[in-house]
Design a protein that fits this description.
alpha/beta, Ubiquitin-like (UB roll), Translation Initiation Factor IF3, 4-stranded mixed sheet, 4 helices, rod-shaped
Length: 170
């Protein structure tokens, strides 16, 4: 349940409620007004934690502190996530050896950080009439990177481009 859906103090309309005190001990089923006055006497809030239960479960706690803890846990879980990006390396069918080595090194770096790599061969002019050059180049790139990557799908031909997607090996 998100913190926007929680009912607190005067927002709790259903009576009676099953009450849990600030230490986590069961108090029992009590009228809502009595539970609210117990929470006020302790300087805390009455928070409905399980509204679907019958009777609903309410807990005596510091609501501001509870909201802060929820937000902190949410931020912490987002920080630990790794979003996989698709990086693209573009080459031409008649690429020079050194230029290809630079592109392969960049692709290797992307794969090492856990990102997927899309290798695109761009054809210009009449080069598009010889797709076997692009096919051979993609096969060579696949062979060079097979120690760190596996092929995701196959070679796709999109207009004047031919591409291959590589996924890092774990």
């Amino acid at each position: 349940m998100s913190q926007g859906e929680l009912r607190v103090n005067e927002g709790i309309r259903i009576s009676p409620v099953r009450l849990v005190d600030e230490t986590g001990a069961q108090v029992g089923v009590v009228p809502t007004d009595e539970a609210r006055s117990m929470a006020e006497a302790r300087g805390l809030d009455l928070v409905e934690v399980a509204p679907d239960a019958r009777p609903p479960v309410c807990r005596i706690m510091d609501f501001g502190k509870y909201k802060y803890e929820l937000a902190r846990k949410s931020r912490e879980s987002r920080r630990k996530q790794h979003v996989v990006h698709v990086k693209e390396v573009k080459v031409r069918p008649r690429i020079d050896e050194h230029d290809l080595a630079v592109k392969l090194r960049r692709a290797r770096e992307f794969l090492a950080t856990g990102d997927r790599v899309k290798v695109t061969v761009m054809f210009r002019g009449r080069e598009v009439t010889r797709p076997e050059f692009g096919q051979r180049l993609l096969e060579r790139i696949r062979g060079e990177l097979e120690d760190v990557a596996s092929v995701d799908g196959g070679v796709t031909h999109e207009g004047r481009n031919m591409s291959l997607v590589l996924t890092p090996r774990r």
